[in-house]
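Ticket 4471: requesting a sanity check on a complex prediction with S-adenosyl-L-homocysteine. Repro inputs:
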Amino acid sequence: MAVTGTLAERPQTPVMRSGSLTEKPSLVGLDRVALGEALRDKGVPDKQIKMRVAQIWNWIYVRGVSDFDHMANVSKDMREMLKTHFTIARPEIVEEQVSNDGTRKWLLRFPPRGAGRPVEVESVYIPEEGRGTLCISSQVGCTLTCSFCHTGTQKLVRNLTAEEILAQLLLARDRLGDFPDREIPVGTMMPSSDRKVTNVVMMGMGEPLYNFEEVKKALLIATDGDGLSLSKRRVTLSTSGVVPEIYRTGDEIGVMLAISLHAVRDELRDMLVPINKKYPLRDLIEACRNYPGLSNARRITFEYVMLKDVNDSLEDAKGLIQLLKGVPAKINLIPFNPWPGTNYQCSDWATIEKFADFINQAGYASPIRTPRGRDILAACGQLKSESERMRKTERMAFEAMMIAGHGEDDDD
Ligand code: SAH
Ligand code: SF4
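Returned structure tokens:
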């Protein structure tokens, strides 16, 4: 059963409550040029800009501070100026849940941007042997309507900004104690081997490639070597197949790619992943083949949700091998996570194993993704915003009908 509650508080991690969020522009999510411009606009002299940008960048992304007053080597006047005009506050944590398997889920509330209303977003942390993966969202809702996906039943509320995408990572690191303590002298780096969040996957709510510019800004900051320092090999962007932006992702972001494939024939994929009508399998696979930097050590992940009697036959498995010929690929089989109102069922376990064996024999790694955090509804395709979250009774009934997960996850 899920435990809902607050984890050990850390002093520099105030849990913000409604009303305390300022709507001043945030410095989080600005690249160095934009950060410099923001400072120059407020009267910081040209000759100081480079140094100030480096200091602030270090405080925000290496030290993880969310309060200007904690920027110890920034003068008091400068801190006052920053406080007057900007914010680096974290979003409000509406709910924090810890699953009995260690998975954690946060429901975060962001203040309105422009004329909009506040939005709520979920992110999920999955600890595993030797690594910890944070699953983050790129949009609230989704414009696409994949027929097996809960998010797909929800309209797009809005795109998240780079700040909001990064805030999910900063906040998870806060709550996991993954930033250096404030007492550690300026300039000390935390050894990456001690990190709790080692991997980031954009597999939460939304289609990241329909919010390309903000996702790009956020991921370039997350992988900046002088800041959050995630390796590009440990950041994976999952897309339903927005072909033109797959090329741009390779050229402009350079993170690892996951493709929500789910079907190997256009006729079926048109139904499951309707964007296939616009960018059919041929174009999608061609874009994958051309993804820069692919090798045996750097493969594209193809996600394949196992839907009973829909896409789980050995014919489908054969088709899959044929389709991926020549593409450095790993195949991630995802047991379908049911949600109230869906017409799909998860394939039987024996069928999933047969499917996996077939693919394995053809030489592909084909881990079956272990469903994690099911008791707190943290699994793929189950993230929702507050507007559509299940009521408690509905949720208890749903939890009761959930099946147990098995299998092994990928290990790189
Ligand atoms: N929009 C992007 C990323 C978010 S979805 C995309 O589609 O790739 C992350 C993954 O979860 C995708 O592979 C998606 O197809 C899968 N998914 C969605 N709903 C699911 C469900 N109910 N059960 C299992 N996987 C699901
Ligand atoms: Fe959107 Fe991805 Fe869900 Fe499809 S699977 S509806 S693209 S979030």
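Notes from triage: Residues 3-85 form a domain with the DNA polymerase; domain 1 fold (CATH 1.10.150.530). Leaving this open until the requester confirms.
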